[in-house]
Amino acid sequence: MTIFIPTPLRPYAAGQASVEVKAATIADALASLTGSHPELRKHLYTEEGKLRAFVNLYLNDEDIRYLPAKEATSVSATDTLSIIPSIAGGC
Amino acid sequence: MATTTSPETLPELTTDDLSRYSRHLILPEVGMEGQRKLKAARVLCVGTGGLGSPLALYLAAAGIGTLGLVDFDIVDASNLQRQIIHSTKDIGRKKLDSAEEKLLALNPALNVVKHDTMLSSANALDILKDYDIVADGTDNFPTRYLVNDACVLLGKPNVYGSIFRFEGQASVFATAQGPCYRCLYPEPPPPGLVPSCAEGGVLGILPGLVGVIQATEAIKLILGKGESLAGRLLLVDALNMRFRELKLRKNPECPVCGANPTVTELIDYQQFCGIKPESKEERALKNGIPQLGVKELKRRIDAGEDIFVLDVREPFEYQIANIGGKLIPQNDVPQRLAEIDRDREIVVQCKSGGRSQRIAEFLLQNGYTKVVNLAGGILAWADEIDPKMQKY
Fold first, then answer.
1. I need a surface site. Which of B44, B296, B348, B380 has the fewest CB within 10 A?
2. Hey, what CATH class is A2-85 in?
3. Which ipTM was obtained for this model?
């Protein structure tokens, strides 16, 4: 599946705008992503291993917080995962 | 919609209005009644910069009756790459005055209300209460949370837009049934994690795109037509020209707009965003490096003191402007330590004080005992010592 990397996090994903991973669930996909790009981990997760509150994850167009199985939700090869951090620029 | 004016209380259109807005009047979605709703509407633009520029201009063009503007900033040359409401002749002028002039030139019937202040917890509720819709064109997290909370507490829709480099987001928060900004992002990122436009750069056209999307949403809310972005997050990728949409849900446990709100008044947003005010000691010393002001450096140079100014910028920057320091670009410093005297006091200097601070810390770690950082860099020198110096 494709994981879309937002601009602020691209420096930690070797500059890529999207990464392809093979995974059965959302959690697998994220583990695969942070496995190959370990620097991403501290930007996505707190020290306790929770997803940071200013980062949202979307499976296709749905926020994973509102999926019944959340990160355990199964995914298919045509699904996409988007990482959407908050940005504040406006000036 | 927020306005509760019935057709009988909507303002009449003048003959000038009828000719000016003819292209609106012939649209079924606007018509006479829609144009009168626009004329009755009061919209507050928080910020007259990148997002605020196109936002305010298009709202004025559309015939909004009252436009409030909040800004405390001065027009700078580097703004003109994207803040198109301001002109070259406005450099040095208050953005509020520059914006008002252009808006009234476009639409003399517009009622412009200038709020020459920084929005804060002390004044936000008072300023926002007189408007129907708030358009958030600010550039920092504390203010975005402040605007959001104030809108929810007052029941005013918040037309939101934000940008970073070449990506943008747009939505409408704080409608009666819809989510608010905190439903999407309960917490801000730690300070320093997401660079500002000055630090990260921004594609000039980007706020133009997103700002007009915000203006469109404000107008649709006033007209009560079309489908607003409430409940949706529009993502704009200008580099690849892709637009995506994500679903936004109202968080039933949202501390501000949920069923059992815990935030019932405005809080300290700087603290919320983890921004601690600097103590005097912290200002004078950062990570063990004393901070030197440009005025003090000038005094020492004029007094004939033996100072080694180490300029760690790139050669092209040195060519634009310099204060005669020895140029060793930051990445070359580790290999060229032999050229940096350990016995003399080293004043490390760059453009604005960031790179020089890091190099000063590096020198300290490498046994240099007399190292200081020129706070504010060559930009501070240009502002305070030599106004003829080229800024960039």
1. B296
2. alpha beta
3. 0.86
